[in-house]
Amino acid sequence: MTLARILRHLLRYSTEFRLGVILLGVVAILAALSFASPYPPLDVYVVAPDVPPSRAHVFGTTSRGQDVFWQLTVAVRNTLLFGIAVAFLSRILSLVIGLISGYKGGWIDRVLMSLNDTFIIIPLFPLLMLFYFVMRDSMTWAMLALIMSFLGWAYDARLIRSVVMSLKRREFTQTGIFSGMTTREILMREHMPHVMPIVFSTTMNNINWSIGLEVTLSVLGFTDNNTPTIGGMIFWANQHSAMVAGVWWWIAFPVAVVVMTFVGLFCLALSMNEYIDPRSRWSRMSGGSA
Amino acid sequence: MSGALIELAHVSKTFTRGGLFAARRIEAVADVSFRVAAERPVILTITGESGSGKTTLARMILKIVEPSAGAIVFCGTDLKSIRDSAARLAFMRQVQPIFQNPFEVFNPLKHLDRYLYITTRRYGGAADMATVEHRSDEALRQVGLSLGEIKRRFPHELSGGQLQRVAIARALLAGPALIVADEPVSMVDASLRMSIANLFRSLRDELRISTIYITHDLTTAYYISDEIIIMQKGKIVERGAARTVLSAPQHPYSRQLKDAVLSPHALSRQPALPHDARSLPRLP
Amino acid sequence: MSAPLAIRSTPIAQETAPRMPVVSVEGLKAYYRTDHFGVKRLVRAVDDVTFEVRRDEIYGLAGESGAGKTTLTKTLTGAVRPPLQIVGGTIAFSFLPGTQGLHCAPPPEVSRVRWRHLSYIMQGSMSVLNPVRRVRSSFEDFAFRHMELSRRGFDAAVRAHLARMQLEPNVLVAYPHELSGGMRQRISIALATICRPELIIADEPTTAVDVIVQKDVLAMIRSSQKEMGSSVLLVTHDMGVHAYLSDRLGIMHAGRLVEEGRSEEILARPRHPYTRHLISSLLRIGDDTPRRGLEGSPPNLADPPPGCRFHPRCPLAMDVCRREVPPFTVHGPDHRVACFAVTPEARP
């Protein structure tokens, strides 16, 4: 089953997938457009401030003299990159820890899971605020992404571990062992295909989670708000009391875009999950029970 | 070689269930000793009901589970001394398993022929694809299949009987001296069982491979075994030449087992039997 | 509304019209239709099956995995949910006149019939008994509303029934996990027989039970059946069980019935090539003559071979077998076979 065929299948038969693709497609186009922005993204007061949506400025302008549309493209790009980076890094962590812990068992499992549970219990938000206060100016986006990925692996590591534990008991693992496969080969080649569906669905959720956290932190001012991000835009809008001043477009459009992103990712996760689920795969392959 | 192919001396296995305060000990295998001679290949059947310990015994012989007490010696090597992966590989080259559920033996999401190639490579040292495929094909032919039928197929595309035969072919590719088969035909359709049972016979006669055959079905045991061991609640209650023991069992439990066999021939039809005190519930 | 049950000593057989079979299945077709992401499959699990279960008999249904036995029991008990669909045929129960089967009967009728006239002994007795409640709660849940007795009367009736089945009354206060598998299966039988149904469907009743207890369980089924005069549809792949219990035997292969007759006759003189192979491959202690396995693999029910579904593996296959489905022909009293090779008159 090549990727192209899988995508075609999904597009044809799953409404959720189509919806997700459309929504995310729009978001992705916005992000791509950021490279064509006529205004340098970090500059302020380049255009007339507080102009409502019009022909010249499709989404209006902000109180800081920036074009909302072009700001948004850059913001979306940055936010998406951030979310994807965090999700990617934390997937690697949760996979490695989950696989080793589940397969090896024994004291390795106990140590890793104690570590895991500690990370689950830690309240993320106060911790991130603490990091911000301690690190202040040296808290770059890269740093934040790194910190968040170290905090975001814990739930999913446990999930992966339990899947691996049940796979270990299944007889085909023994067949692999007796065929001479090494532990690494068994984990990567035998168990991974069963684990991947979980990794995919948790990736979508993780992206949503990290974007959500980023927006929250930015809105509250706990990140470097000079680089445009969706949360940053909302932050500045609040700083300038946009809603009160009637500059609704400054808040509405970023919020709309972030909601589209969330819903789009969720729809994708939903449809891909159903597709990748081993039971539905088996049913497609063999025609179900008799 | 002289000496035993495999010898078990006072092997026991106790499982503990429950936590720190309420631990319960279950003696799955209690003081079992027997040996399989190396001079000629033999099919030794270990039989008993569920809870008799026969599966645990098989897993200990395969070194999937460690015994709590006693020693298992395979061709002069104590299993406890096998620690590193090289020694483990050398052991697995000699001893291979066949499991009960043919639909679980192979990863349902992967092609079947993969396992044959990996086994050939790891144990045979073969390098190029052509040799590997050729050897796999040979092994498959020995079990009545061919590589053309198996290539790039998934497990769900074959029947239980065919899957077990592929499992046997895979085991053969390691070149073992001993196969430990745990209920290999109980989940296979009746019409396909015979070919697999016959296969074990031919493995013994033509390829000189011994088999330890675990089953609860006495009729299959009669059909293919040379020797038999009957277990009850972890202990051996009777052993000997298969045909002799099964034709005239001595121990009362063996007699019970034999009486319980339902003969498919009309002569065994009986009217309603009164149940006796044995059927009272095991309440605490 | 059925009459209140008192503890009877006369069998129930007098209630239904004499001579009428307890269930009569005609031309039943039940398929599984799946459609996942555009991949459509149609599995012809039961394809044109006709048979009847008479009063006061144990009818055995034999066949391997994939033969359609489980699907058939699902259609009989009305457990027909997508992807399973009944696409043709009728099921006529003697106690449910005027309907084509439980699956299309009105719900009040289904409630009336289930357990009182039609009950079920399942494989894996754990699934019948609620694991977190005592055994007596299962009796209450299943049988109380049918028996129309007071609580005390019902309690007494249950105890009397257990005594008749030679089970200790203290099993009622036990939890299922405290009892052995064989004991639970026997309780399942007591549960299935307490309302004295006309038809009991026993689906692999001893497969999950140890060998030594198996005979007891089967003997119990036999004695309950004899005493109550009900009929049993015994579904199992184990020919030994059929030899021990079944009066008549129907052999299923790939969704179709291929042979049917009295079990002594089928076991001693099987006619259909598939039945012959099945019987000859049965082993016995004391007989180790080599036997041959069957070539090939069971047919794929999503894409079955045309004509007789056994022809790819049949040693007697002829040209007509590849094209046409063999009809049933009578070979003796109560013995019918669907095979061209064995009945020359059937060939077109």
Question: What features would you highlight for this structure?
Answer:
heterotrimer; B: 284 residues; alpha/beta; Rossmann fold; four-stranded antiparallel sheet; C: 348 residues; eight-stranded mixed sheet; 22% strand; globular; disordered N terminus
Give your account of this protein's structure.
The complex is a heterotrimer of chains A (290), B (284) and C (348). Chain A has 13 helices and no strands. In chain A, helix 3 packs parallel to helix 12 and helix 9 packs parallel to helix 10. The mean pLDDT of chain A is 83. With 284 residues, chain B is an alpha/beta fold. Chain B has a domain of 184 residues: P-loop containing nucleotide triphosphate hydrolases (Rossmann fold), CATH 3.40.50.300. Helices cover 35% and strands 24% of the residues of chain B. Chain B is built from ten helices and ten strands. In chain B, helix 4 crosses helix 6. The longest helix of chain B is centred in the last third of the chain and has 16 residues. Chain B is globular, with a radius of gyration of 20 Å. Chain B starts with a strand and ends in a 24-residue tail after the last helix. With 348 residues, chain C is α/β, with parallel strands linked by helices. Chain C has ten helices and eleven strands. The radius of gyration of chain C is 21 Å and the shape is globular. The N and C termini of chain C lie far apart (50 Å). In chain C, 48% of the residues are buried. Classes of the chains: A mainly alpha (290), B alpha/beta (284), C alpha/beta (348). At the A-C interface, helix 1 and helix 13 of A face strand 1 and strand 2 of C.
